[in-house]
Design goal:
globular, 4 helices, 200 residues, 9 strands, alpha+beta, 30% strand, two-stranded antiparallel ribbon
C-alpha cells in the first residue's frame, strides 16, 4: 500500500473518546492541527484536545523537530515510524508493516504496539513542553484487543494531565480499517533541569 493511502486510513481511524474532548467554542479557539508534509487531505480529526482550559496553549515544537527526534532515536528508527500529525498534547504515528515485525503465528508482535504508543506519547509531551524537555516512562499498561496481520498500523497518543512531576496519557493503535488493536495507559516522569532521575 502506498503511504498516501495509509495516511488517509490513519486519519479516518484516529480515536479520541468523548470523555476526553469538548467542542471548541469558536474557530479561533481551536488549536492547530499540524499534518506532516505530504499527508492527504483529511482535517476532520483532532480539532479538540485534552484539557480544554489549556487548548489555546501554543505548540512548543515544530514538525521538523519531531521528525528529527524520530530519525535520531534508534529504538524508533528500527521500526520506521513516520510522523502523521500532531497538535497540542496529541501525536499520531504511522507504523508501516514489515515482515520482521511478525512473531510465530503470523501476527504483529506486541512489542511493536507498545513501542509505538511510548514514542507517540513522548512526542505528544514535546508538543506541550518542547523537544528539549526531558521525560521518561515510569509506568505503562497495555491491553491487546485484536491481532494485526500483514497490515499497517496507526498509533495516536493523547495527554490526559500534564502535572509538575507526572504526565498521564493514553494511546491507541488501530489498523487501516479503524479496528482497535491495542489500548495503552502511560505515566511519564518529568525530569527538571538539574534533577537526576532516580528509580523508585
Amino acid at each position: 500500500m502506498e503511504w498516501a493511502e495509509m495516511e488517509n486510513s490513519c486519519a479516518s481511524s484516529i480515536f479520541i473518546s468523548k470523555e476526553m474532548i469538548r467542542p471548541a467554542h469558536s474557530a479561533n479557539s481551536q488549536p492547530p492541527v499540524i499534518r506532516a508534509q505530504g499527508n492527504a487531505e483529511r482535517e476532520q480529526v483532532m480539532r479538540s484536545v485534552i484539557e480544554p482550559s489549556k487548548a489555546q496553549s501554543k505548540l512548543r515544537v515544530t514538525e521538523k523537530e519531531l521528525k528529527r527526534v524520530l530519525s535520531e532515536s534508534a529504538f524508533a528508527r528500527i521500526y520506521h515510524f513516520k510522523l502523521h500529525s500532531f497538535s497540542s498534547g496529541i501525536c499520531t504515528l504511522l507504523v508501516p508493516f514489515m515482515k520482521s515485525m511478525e512473531r510465530p503465528g503470523g501476527i504483529v508482535a506486541g512489542a511493536i504496539f507498545m513501542t509505538a504508543a511510548d514514542v507517540a506519547m513522548w512526542l505528544a509531551i514535546m508538543t506541550r513542553l518542547g523537544s528539549d524537555a526531558v521525560s521518561v516512562t515510569s509506568e505503562m499498561t497495555t491491553a491487546f484487543l485484536n491481532p494485526a496481520r500483514e497490515e499497517n498500523v496507526c498509533c495516536t497518543a493523547s495527554i490526559l494531565k500534564l502535572g509538575e512531576s507526572r504526565i498521564y496519557g493514553v494511546a491507541e493503535c488501530k489498523n487501516e480499517a479503524g479496528r482497535l488493536l491495542t489500548h495503552h495507559t502511560l505515566t511519564y516522569a518529568r525530569i527538571h533541569h538539574g534533577q537526576k532521575h532516580k528509580k523508585d
